[in-house]
Amino acid sequence: MPSQPHLPRMPRVYLVRHGETEWSLSGQHTGRTDIPLTENGEKVLSKLGKQIVGDGSNTLSRIIKSPRKRAQTTFDLLFSHYQGSRDISSIPSETTESVREWDYGEYEGITSKKIHESSPDWDIFKDGCPGGESLQEMKERVDGVIEEIRKTHQEYWTRVKSGECEAGTQGGDVLVVSHGHFSKCFLARWIETDLSNGKHFIVDAGGVSVGSYDHKDLREPALQ
């Protein structure tokens, strides 16, 4: 059989959870509350910025950020020491509520331990949050974000395969700066499993998750 033509790596989505806050340390659910990063959280992100970002902006086609200040500051710190050849401001960037944290409603600012004192069987991935977002609402919001990212990936990959785009030059990748539960839900839905499977993913403050595709096929979403 004739050998297949070499294709570059598939486009990726980089999903970054914001850095450490006082409430991420205490375990309090932080949705709408707009609290800053801790001093330690800022220091960690400043040190990790070069390692996480590197010259990666050369492959970014799009940046999506939560409007909460903890996410905005995380983005700024990650790129604070960037020395790549591309101007960050030239990359299409949007700040949108679509990647904000799960709306915890009545459970905002409360720890899971405290919630279980009155509702011992409560599980956010089964029950959602009273006065906040249900599982279905969260699923629809996350799926909408994924759909938009896949459109970006599809457009880029079509250009690469047709020879219209040189691989690795401003190529296809998307950066999302968001939150813990949103990230868990995103990872579950990226690989097209039930939203409840989000509970099985560990997403640390300041951590990065990567989604892409297996076998050079956009129909096979995978995690790296």
Task: Please provide a brief summary of the model.
Substrate binds at residues 30-31, 70, 101-104. A hairpin with a 7-residue loop joins β5 (208-213) and β6 (221-223). This protein has helices spanning 22-26, 39-53, 69-78, 112-118, 124-127, 135-162, 180-190, and strands spanning 13-17, 60-65, 93-95, 173-178, 208-213, 221-223.
Q: Can you describe what's shown?
A:
Helix 2 packs across helix 3 (69-78) and helix 6 crosses helix 7 (180-190). The chain has helices spanning 22-26, 39-53, 69-78, 112-118, 124-127, 135-162, 180-190; strands spanning 13-17, 60-65, 93-95, 173-178, 208-213, 221-223. The longest helix is centred in the middle third of the chain and has 28 residues, at 135-162. It has seven helices and six strands, in the order E-H-H-E-H-E-H-H-H-E-H-E-E. It is 36% helix and 13% strand. The protein has a single domain (13-223), classed as Rossmann fold (3-Layer(aba) Sandwich), CATH 3.40.50. By secondary structure, the chain is an alpha/beta fold. Strand 2 (60-65), helix 3 and strand 3 form a beta-alpha-beta unit. The radius of gyration is 18 Å and the shape is globular. The active site is at 18 (tele-phosphohistidine intermediate), 101 (proton donor/acceptor). GO terms for molecular function: sedoheptulose-bisphosphatase activity. This is Phosphoglycerate mutase.
